[in-house]
Amino acid sequence: MSVHPPTTTPAPDAAEVRRLTRELLAAHPPATTDRTDFLRARFDAGLAWVHYPVGLGGLDAPRSLQVVADAELTAAGAPDNDPRRIGIGLGMAAPTVLAYGNDEQKRRFLRPLWVGEEVWCQLFSEPGAGSDLAALGTRAVREGDTWVVDGQKVWTSSAHLARWAILIARTDPALPKHQGITYFVCDMTDPGVEVRPLRQITGEAEFNEVFLSGVRIPDAHRLGPVGEGWRVAQTTLMNERVSIGGSRIPREGGMIGPVAKTWRDRPGLRTHDLHQRLLTLWVDAEVARLTGERLRQQLVAGQPGPEGSGMKLAFARLNQEISGLEVELLGEEGLLYEDWTMRRPELVDFTGRDAGYRYLRSKGNSIEGGTSEVLLNIVAERVLGLPTEPRNDKDVAWKDLAR
């Protein structure tokens, strides 16, 4: 008797993705369909992120085919999900839920996350555990099927808007600091969660400090095994750095765009020195843009690696140098500041604001998403293969560390 191997459905190709997109547009015309209803239908059709599994917003298709669906949808005037407003959910929470969540968690969280019905934030950094994140002290103590969490988090972007947070907390202080950490999904509307604004140098408070006092998180909202939170968090951090430093932008997009426009429109501001600096930074920005495109192509083959840390490093340096050049180019105008009103914005808008805002806000780029100093270590050790720095606390129980 002959045995036939099981048949498998081939992955969709570009023609199939295009067909499915046109079917979506025919069934839900963007001009007459409610925005949220259209986004839900797009998710259900597998056209949210085509490389995700069927039933979770995807088609099990190659990641490279996302541009095929996006091009059809853009040409038809279809709404997007306002990705800048929900960037933490899209870039950090979703990949982690996909990698470590169970089936119920994936079904519960991914659809409203992508549609933008639920905003996410990230409860990682603490006052005593920023660059050395593994030193975190927020405690989670198990009581039956519930974890009781106490501690403080800081630099939490969008916490004032968020329904959910990805949270890491210490569940076993007797283990070394990189162990005994567990990863949770925290409901930001639960009792015991207090969000306080942190006003920045820009005048705004786009991020916050968050106090957790007896917050009860069901074990059903744990991602990954107990004690494996540091490993789970690496998925979040690698995706975070790609989402910050490796986003797709057009030529002369990002910070270099406003400077180049000012240079062309106002020749009276030009000097030889500024010309040389602008040319250098323009080339650097274009190199970074093309490198980011290469990184995205590598993602087609698997998960992001440490190369994202290099991109995030370049992003921070370029933003700070370009914004500094813009302020100098504008002379006295560069000293003006549009508005220092205390606000709690929904997103960071670099190119829609004035030069003073860009100059001040870019100072945070070398801190948020991993400090440049930490990222330099990652690039040195994990990309270049250089010897690691001595770490005398690696095998010491967290409770015995000097603090």
Oligomer: single chain
Q: In whole angstroms, how far apart are the ends?
A: 70 Å
Spatial strand arrangement across the major sheet: 1-4-5-8
User: Which structural category do the helix and sheet elements fall into?
Assistant: alpha+beta
Helix content: 25-40%
Rg (CA only) = 23 Å
Main pleated sheet? 4 strands, mixed
Tell me the overall shape. Answer: globular
Fraction of residues in β-strands: 5-15%
Query: Mean pLDDT, nearest integer?
Result: 91
Give me the number of helical elements: 11
List segments where confidence is low: pLDDT < 50 over at least 5 consecutive residues: 1-7
Short note summarizing the structure:
The protein is α+β, with helices and mostly antiparallel strands and 403 residues long. The chain has 11 helices and 8 strands.
Account of the protein in words:
The protein has 403 residues and is an alpha+beta fold. 39% of the residues lie in helices and 14% in strands. It has 11 helices and 8 strands. It has helices spanning 14-27, 35-44, 66-75, 87-100, 103-115, 229-245, 256-265, 272-299, 307-330, 355-361, 372-383, and strands spanning 120-123, 139-143, 146-157, 164-170, 181-187, 193-198, 207-218, 222-223. β6 (193-198) and β7 (207-218) form a beta hairpin. α9 (307-330) packs antiparallel against α11.
